[in-house]
Amino acid sequence: MSKIKVSDIEIYYEIHGEGFPVVMIHGFSANLDWWPQSLINELSKTFKVILFDNRGAGRTDKPDMEYSIRLFADDTAGLMDALNIKKAFIIGLSMGGMIAQELTLNYPEKVEKLILCGTSCGGSKAITPSAETMKIIMRDRDAIAQEEAIREWIPILFSKDFIMNNPGYIENFVQRGIIAPIPPYNYRLQTKAVFQFNSGRKLKGIKTSTLVLHGKKDIMLPPENAEIISKLISDANLHIFDEIGHLIFSENPEEALTIIMDFLK
């Protein structure tokens, strides 16, 4: 557990295991505590797994300034340089998938293979969440406690069946979510960055071998987004998980891991 200077901030990161590097980028408002430990344990048996908190989240510095997905991608590239990682497999989830797209577009030499999970290309090509989901996303975080904010997100992160059948996991997830929660002002800054993101016209420029994963029951970013991305990237393979919500690694870690390991061979 360490921090390292990258440009104008210090980024909090962890390294697990040895081998070819896998850089994992989490999503909007999240930090590395959100990754399932079982996933990290399995990946680290084969790879050097690098986890980190994005600018404004977790234990990374939180400057009050304009954020963008490009800035987050620059942070990721800077972290790789600081850790002397010339090239890596990149896994991006949700907003992390947007960052991974931007990283691959602007630093293709750093990306050996790309895995995009539960994400979108933004802009006019993207399929937006329902009005009900948007109401939760846009909620004023100043008006509620951090734990309440995490609990309010549960129905848009997980499928109804998973929530009903896994109360222990959900409670553990909530407790992990409040270890280093994002401050309200950074939540607003990340929100703006997400809604300004638009890679649709540029994705044809990605020549990196890409795996696109998405849950069919994802209501935060509807699964049609995965189909759009996979059609825009020339060398992309698409897999839709039938009964899964937004956090595919939490709901079906075994199948997700099998697919990922096969792709990274």
How many discrete domains?
Answer: 1
Query: What is the CATH topology assignment?
Result: Rossmann fold
| CATH second-level architecture | 3-Layer(aba) Sandwich
Determine the mean pLDDT: 97
What is the CATH superfamily classification? Alpha/Beta hydrolase fold, catalytic domain
- Beta content comes to 15-25%
Biggest sheet layout: 8 strands, mixed
Q: Name the structural class.
A: alpha/beta
Outline, from the CA principal axes?
A: globular
Helix content: 40-55%
Order of helices and strands: EEEHEHEHEHHHHHEHEHH
Question: What is the number of strand segments?
Answer: 8
Gyration radius (Cα, Å) is 17 Å
Going across the biggest sheet, name each strand in turn.
1-2-4-3-5-6-7-8
The low-confidence parts are none
Helix segment count? 11
| End-to-end separation | 28 Å
Q: Class in CATH?
A: Alpha Beta
Task: Give an overview in words.
The chain has helices at 37-43, 69-82, 95-106, 131-137, 146-157, 160-165, 167-177, 184-196, 224-232, 248-251, 253-263; strands at 2-6, 9-16, 21-25, 48-52, 88-93, 111-117, 210-215, 236-241. The chain has 265 residues and is α/β, with parallel strands linked by helices. The chain has a single domain (2-263), classed as 3-Layer(aba) Sandwich (Rossmann fold). α1 packs parallel to α11 (253-263), α2 (69-82) packs across α3 (95-106) and α5 crosses α7. The radius of gyration is 17 Å and the shape is globular. It starts with a strand and ends with a helix.
